[in-house]
Amino acid sequence: MAEGIRIENLIKTYGSGDTAVHALRGVNMSVAKGEVVGLIGPSGSGKSTLLKCLGAVIEPTSGRMTIGDSVIFEDGWRVADLRALRRDLIGFIFQAPYLIPFLDVTDNVALLPMLAGKPNAEARKEARDLLEALDVAHRAAAMPSQLSGGEQQRVAIARALVNRPPVILADEPTAPLDSVRALAVVDLLNTMARQFETAVIVVTHDEKIIPTFGRVYNIREGITIEEFGTHASTHQVTPG
Ligand SMILES: Nc1ncnc2c1ncn2[C@@H]1O[C@H](COP(=O)(O)OP(=O)(O)OP(=O)(O)O)[C@@H](O)[C@H]1O
């Protein structure tokens, strides 16, 4: 499979001198287009820091990141407009759906392309097509407060996909959901990843879904260890 995102020797140090925190100490990771991988690790291991670097929310100290064939970071950002990078190349899914309460479901999904300058009718058509693909089109005219938790998360996934980003970062997307709904969200992420050739990284503590990943990156004290298959759910690494 073609490459979606690659991270090489990524380092992030907060502060400097005696008080420096070495949050990422040389992370290597690659996710193919159409692949969904898990990112797990104990509290304080560096998951959020890695996600923020990948999402161009904070600047890594050094290393290299590529999305497809484009180098986006190599010892400094290689793109001038980080807002456009986040808007066009990366979709975000969070633990809570964070839908806008005063917009209906269609407009929640259509908002991003509208803000990017797409004509409203076209953006709404794209939103409705995605809602269809995510099996929530029958709620297209509803307000977010009228949806179940699982439906809200589907709308949040539609919103993350609407600009067809090559990369999706999902931060604990199943935490508030029961087993059945959590597994349904992972199934959906897998289907969408394949359909739209998106590389998906799911940060999770959720034991219900960890065994479903073909590959997991386990981060320990700022270093990732790659694990495969069901191994991922049982493998124990002694903290260094
Ligand atoms: N802005 C910051 N300034 C200084 N140190 C930070 C900052 N943000 C995080 N850290 C430190 O970097 C290390 C990694 O933190 P990070 O938040 O990435 O871990 P995490 O794996 O996401 O943890 P959790 O699962 O508890 O959210 C920790 O030692 C943390 O205290």
Automatic annotation (TrEMBL):
<dbReference type="Pfam" id="PF00005">
    <property type="entry name" value="ABC_tran"/>
</dbReference>
<dbReference type="InterPro" id="IPR017871">
    <property type="entry name" value="ABC_transporter-like_CS"/>
</dbReference>
<feature type="domain" description="ABC transporter">
    <location>
        <begin position="5"/>
        <end position="240"/>
    </location>
</feature>
<dbReference type="InterPro" id="IPR017911">
    <property type="entry name" value="MacB-like_ATP-bd"/>
</dbReference>
<dbReference type="InterPro" id="IPR003593">
    <property type="entry name" value="AAA+_ATPase"/>
</dbReference>
<dbReference type="InterPro" id="IPR015854">
    <property type="entry name" value="ABC_transpr_LolD-like"/>
</dbReference>
<keyword id="KW-0067">ATP-binding</keyword>
<protein>
    <submittedName>
        <fullName>ABC transporter ATP-binding protein</fullName>
    </submittedName>
</protein>
<dbReference type="GO" id="GO:0005524">
    <property type="term" value="F:ATP binding"/>
</dbReference>
<keyword id="KW-0813">Transport</keyword>
<keyword id="KW-0547">Nucleotide-binding</keyword>
<dbReference type="InterPro" id="IPR027417">
    <property type="entry name" value="P-loop_NTPase"/>
</dbReference>
<dbReference type="InterPro" id="IPR003439">
    <property type="entry name" value="ABC_transporter-like_ATP-bd"/>
</dbReference>
